[in-house]
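Field log, afternoon session.

UNIT: design team B
ACTIVITY: writing a sequence onto a fixed backbone
BACKBONE:
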């Protein structure tokens, strides 16, 4: 006759399993709290100096950082950057050549684009959001056209240009709430790559400063 045996778990083992699960949860929360406690609170500054050169139509992050806010707040975001345009143009005989190069910067907070002009808000940091624009700001831009006219095709003109400038701009992100926030600065490069012309935008030394603020009302447009 078959004998069916029923295995019974000891109450002590069950208690130990529950205790281990609780301990694991506590450790996970402590690790998260410890990581958050090491983040700057309500104000931070980050810098970078690695040159970033990209091809036409690319959009890449050039700065990224995390901070925490202790209370619901608006964030004032200030970005400075050296912006360079490297260019070359060659005309053969009677011809016209041109190039366009532009570098735009924009920001996201927790994955959401930050507009340049936010919507009008109420009287505190817990009201208002969004804006009408996409948040893109031109940090350097050049459009160049050269036309040459000669009697023979044996003559040519070649121009090589290299300029650099420093720029700064600031954005306001409305009602980000309290907690940990991820801020990313993006660069959008519009370049020219042709047979006789090229122009590349370059982002070099740059910085980001973020601090809690209280944005009140957008000013009327000029």
């Amino acid at each position: 006759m078959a004998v069916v045996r029923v295995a019974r778990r000891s109450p002590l083992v069950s208690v130990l399993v529950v205790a281990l699960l609780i301990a694991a949860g506590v450790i996970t929360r402590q690790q998260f709290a410890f990581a958050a406690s090491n983040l700057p609170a309500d104000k931070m500054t980050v810098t970078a100096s690695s040159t970033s050169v990209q091809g036409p139509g690319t959009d890449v992050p050039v700065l990224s950082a995390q901070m925490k806010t202790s209370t619901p707040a608006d964030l004032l975001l200030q970005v400075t950057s050296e912006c360079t345009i490297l260019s070359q143009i060659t005309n053969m005989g009677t011809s016209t050549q041109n190039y366009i190069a532009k570098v735009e910067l924009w920001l996201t907070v927790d994955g959401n684009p930050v507009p340049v002009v936010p919507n009008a808000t109420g009287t505190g940091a817990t009201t208002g959001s969004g804006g009408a624009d996409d948040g893109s700001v031109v940090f350097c831009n050049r459009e160049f056209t050269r036309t040459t006219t000669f009697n023979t095709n044996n003559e040519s003109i070649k121009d090589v240009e290299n300029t650099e400038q420093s720029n700064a701009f600031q954005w306001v992100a409305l009602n980000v709430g309290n907690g940990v926030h991820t801020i990313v600065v993006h660069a959008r490069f519009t370049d020219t790559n042709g047979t006789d012309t090229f122009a590349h935008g370059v982002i070099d030394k740059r910085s980001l400063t973020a601090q809690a603020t209280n944005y009140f009302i957008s000013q009327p447009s000029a």
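LOG NOTE: The longest strand covers residues 74-92.
NEXT ACTIVITY: expression trials, pending approval
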